[in-house]
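Give me structure tokens for this 335-residue protein.
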Amino acid sequence: MQSSPFKICVIGCGEIAFGYHGPAYARYAADYLNTELSGCCSRTLNKAALFAEKFGFHNCYTDFIEMVEAEQPSVVCINVPPEAICEITCAVLQKGIPTLLEKPPGMTIAETDRMIAAAEASTTPNQVAFNRRFMPLTRALISRLEQRYQPDDIHHLQIEFTRVNRGNEDFSTTAIHGIDLARFVARSDFASINFHYQEVHLPGIQAANTYLDGTFNSGATAHISFCPLAGVATERCTVHAYNNSFYLQLPIWNEYDTSGRLIHIEEGKTVFELTGIEAAGTTHDYVLNGFYAENETFFNHIRENRQPEMNIRQSRQSVEIMEAMRERRSEFRPR
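Here you go.
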């Protein structure tokens, strides 16, 4: 007798969903037997219908409450703009449906705490979709670090995010990826951060380069830079330990560091080098950029009755730091 299908519903059928999540859902349904792509929801029915047709969803909706009540899904994936995440996530969590939500998990710490309360009151499993954690190259870096070092063996970590023409907008909702990546690679929360803001004075542009100098609970230090008006879009991470350095170029959006690269140097000699394509075993952007692995990992944890990786509560410090950056505070100290 066949068990009930594992039913996936999706809220939000925008650009990222079409380009990255949709292909991940379709591949997961092909890779894992007894998986049903049950329903997708968008504010416009035409967009939902296009998404359903392209990726193989059975039904499409414009009302997510109607969808989850009709479909009774095993999981819900929420791929909506940051300002809409809190209300939708709380409503789904209150129904007790395991939830994978896009970042950031709240625009403010107050929103994050609302979602934590909803998840814990209903004891509903949840995961935040910080895709950089699930990039094959990031996982390769973490594997090499875990094989060799405890968190307090790491000396220093440096992260740089650059973009082109990203003025006049809230860059903190992108910066949270760098903040979370730092915590993930260091395997530690921050003990303190000092912020420095370099205002960019150009006609019609309101923006600032933002620099974070922090110390982790492990004792490691970090320097993180966010430059939204640079000449290239890149995301890079450097880790230093005793006589060893690791250089990670993330393969974001098929940009300058296409496919990405991880290099490990020991005492001046390259001892390991890996491209993103080698790590992922494919050239598909949705795999290189971690979207397949974050969805696959969440779905499989739910199927196996295990707690997902990186839930909303565990993401809380990243939101606190994001909010401090948005408000142009001079320092962060854990509350």
